[in-house]
Amino acid sequence: MSRTAIRLALRDWDHLVPLAAGRVPTPGFDLRVESRDVTPDVLAEPGLDGGETSFSRYVQARAAGDDRLVGLPAFVMRGFRHRCVLVRSDSPRTALGELAGARVGLTGWPDSGNTWTRALLRAEGVELAGVDWRVGPLVAGESGKERLGPRTPPSNVSALGEGESLVDELAAGRLDAVLTPFMPPELFTRDSRFRHLLADHSAAERAYWEERGFVPGIHLVTLRRETVEAAPELPGVLLAALEQSKRHWVARRRLLADTTPWLLRELTESAQLFGDDWMPYGTEPNAAMIRAFCTELHQQGIWPDPIDPDVLFPDPALAVPAAQPEALTAR
């Protein structure tokens, strides 16, 4: 029986390894997963059927009536944002609320992760309009990204100059803090000039979970509309395969936990706090998170009008991943 070839571009998240290695069944489809160093632009790459896409970019497109991408409620990148605020090691600041009126750098104004981080500041009473925002690359040499977004940002948002970077500006004292989804290499050294703003960010993240009940979604998987129209069953099959890949990865890590000194402890504590799955797929378990993100995009001025979350994932078949016909064992 012939199988339809599908080409996806994704970054090499650990939980996608079983899928990329062909260990997860995708009935009716011959799935090819290409590993990318940066988030791909699915619509700009000829021959791609889908891939990893910014949640913010996807939501704004659908809000504008652009349905060229069909999103799957599979947030392959998600994580708490309290850890994403850096200051100098000698900074007196130790709380999110202390960034009111500060000079804050960030890696992209409309970015999903930075939107979630700004939401934390808003929750602590920080007026975003009172912050001097500087947008640019985290370290020198980064390029190839639209950092201010397609819409004109507020007047208190400006770009760094040519050759400038957030870490250099922070080190020089010209910034008070930096919002970044990825950590600079220096942070992993004993003599780093930088530290997390929140000394115990995991405690703040635990409190966030207990209050909100979700871990923020950053990137999701999307498919080209023409691909879906040619194979309407693909979204459901792929969502189920992504679910099985994730669960197989977790089972393997619980068995082979010696990849970091304390991974087993973290896996155990995560299971005790979050239950069976801290990153569920499907529209139903992500409804509160999706609704909160749409609200933040509007409240922060990223999008001018209120966004109806129902326009994002209209296919009822994506409410929860379907069970796969074959089960993988952990061993």
Outline:
The chain has 331 residues and is an alpha/beta fold. The protein has nine helices and eleven strands. The model has no long low-confidence stretch (mean pLDDT 95).
Describe the structure.
This protein is of the alpha/beta class and about 325 residues long. It contains nine helices and eleven strands. It has helices spanning about 15-20, 55-65, 110-125, 165-170, 200-210, 225-230, 235-255, 265-275, 285-300; strands spanning about 5-10, 30-35, 50-55, 70-80, 85-90, 105, 130-135, 155-160, 175-180, 195, 215-225. The strands form two sheets. It has a six-stranded mixed sheet with strand order 8-7-6-9-5-10. Strands 2-1-3-11-4 form a five-stranded mixed sheet. Helix 3 (about 110-125) links the parallel strand 6 (about 105) and strand 7. It is globular. The chain starts with a strand and ends in a 32-residue tail after the last helix. The mean pLDDT is about 95.
- Taken in chain order, the helices and strands follow as EHEEHEEEHEEHEEHEHHHH
Biggest sheet: strand arrangement: 8-7-6-9-5-10
Strand content: 15-25%
- Total strand count, please? 11
The low-confidence parts are none
What is the rounded distance between the termini?
30 Å
Q: What's the alpha carbon Rg, rounded to whole Å?
A: 20 Å
Helix content: 25-40%
Mean pLDDT: 95
Given the C-alpha coordinates, what overall shape results? globular
Largest sheet: 6 strands, mixed
